[in-house]
Amino acid sequence: MKKLVWNALALSVALGSGAAQAWTLEEAAAPYKGTEIKAIFLDRPGYAAAIKLLPEFEKKTGIKVNYEIIPYENTREQEVLRFSSAEPLDVVLTDVVWIGEFAGNGWLEPITTFTKDAKLADPDLKLDGFFPILLESFGSWDNQTYGLPFDNYSGLLFYNKCMLKDAGFDKPPATWDELLKVYAPKLTDKSKDRYAYALQSRRGETQSADSFMRFLWPFGGSLLDANFKSNLNSKASQEGLQFRQDLMKFMPPGIVDYDHNEAVNALAQGKVAMITEWSAFYSTLADPAKSKITDCLAVATEPKGPAGLKPALGGFSLGVNANSGDKQKAAAWLFIQWVTSEAMAKPYLEAGGVSGRMSVYKDPDVQKKYPFVQPMVTSWEGGVPDYRPRFPQWPEISEVVGENGTSIMLGKSSVEAGAKAIGSKMEDILKKAGYYDGKVKLLK
Question: Has UniProt tagged this entry with the keyword ATP-binding (predicted)?
């Protein structure tokens, strides 16, 4: 009996001791109280959500997060400049197609620097709690993790169910072919400035990623083949790019100047019936102050192509600048770890962001409240293509795709000629980088 009592007492002391020593954000941040860190954010809902939550982090830690909001098209250039300048940048925003360049050049600190430090590593970090495709695509390079998924997207079909109903449809188009041939003619009335579909296509990354690439994979095409040679003049790629041209007849005039905000606003104001946009824009379209169609808003997966459901994949990770000071590195990590944590997933979602955590989307209340969740999770779990190569040369190739993709849409060059021009210039870039002589490891 005495032995049992002693064992119970020993267990109680051990548990009490463990509880007393349990990791807390407040204790981890104590050495960094008063530290200021710098971050770059975008003018998008996910960043507005993080900003809403910042006071909580700053109150708990005493760490000040200074942020600058920069247009997406200027973000990579600004970050690259700051990697080698005296201007501070501690929290690095990394697009899915920048990870190869940033990690390959040693600009990002591997997260093992922090996860191996018991004073900084939250035991509840749970890297396996992120959707695998997000952690792999946005935060990892060459078998090393450099950032945690933040503000992640799947391409989704947002549509005005009232406009579709008035045109005789009780559900969205299941395929791209159905959208073009059945839905688009009935949903377009140019005399009333009403159109079936808007595709964000402004020259730059929006053109190369959100417009041009979106129609390759669903049709069985791709930018490159397995040997990193252009695949743009293959039959499947040509069919996808020609489909985009055919669909332009049912888009608003000036579509080549539409960025995300213009496409989202066109749907929100009732000018178009459908858009394929990132999941992050649901909060904008569901906001009565910004949208006239809140009662008519509905969401589905992107339409299927001949090759099946191949939706767009986009988003970012947050990482730590390898060139920052030790205090700034630690403080930046504590912020990144906190804002992407499972504990903050629901508050982030409720503030208008899109979490990369799996657990939050299993909540029945979340599924009911946010209709974009189910199609987004279906897209992520089904696996989306690596439709934008993540290698370091992507920014240079993106410029080529953006220029020639716009030229194709404007009719200044044919689909075939434009694709050939992109392929030739793209192969020149990759040849100079050593992709065809064995000097470069072929990583995507």
Answer: no
CA distance 236 to 273: 27
Residue type, 384: V
Identify the CA nearest to 230 among candidates 427, 379, 439: 427
Tell me what percent of the residues of the chain surpass a pLDDT of 70.
93
Euclidean distance between CA atoms 184 and 326, whole angstroms:
56
Query: Given a cut of 90, is residue 384 above it in pLDDT?
Result: no
Cα distance between residue 436 and residue 393, in whole Å: 14
pLDDT tens figures, 180-229: 999 999 999 999 999 999 999 999 889 998 999 999 999 999 999 988 89
Which helix (H) or strand (E) segment is 328 a member of? Answer: helix 326-339
Reference 137, options 127, 148, 128; nearest CA is: 148
pLDDT band at 64 (very low <50, low <70, confident <90, very high): very high
Q: Give the integer Cα–Cα distance in Å for 23 and 120.
A: 9
Amino acid letter for position 160:
N
In whole angstroms, how far apart are CA 262 and each of 205, 265, 418?
15, 5, 26
Does residue 439 carry a pLDDT above 70?
Answer: no
Residue 148 burial class via C-beta count within 10 angstroms: exposed 0-12, middle 13-18, buried 19 and up: buried
Residue entry with tokens 């190569």: 389
Neighbours of 213 (CB within 10 A): 23
**pLDDT score recorded for residue 320:** 98
Which residues are bridge partners to 230 per DSSP?
224
Name all domains of the chain by residue range, CATH numbers in brackets. Answer: 24-152+314-382 (3.40.190.10), 154-313+390-432 (3.40.190.10)
pTM of the model: 0.83
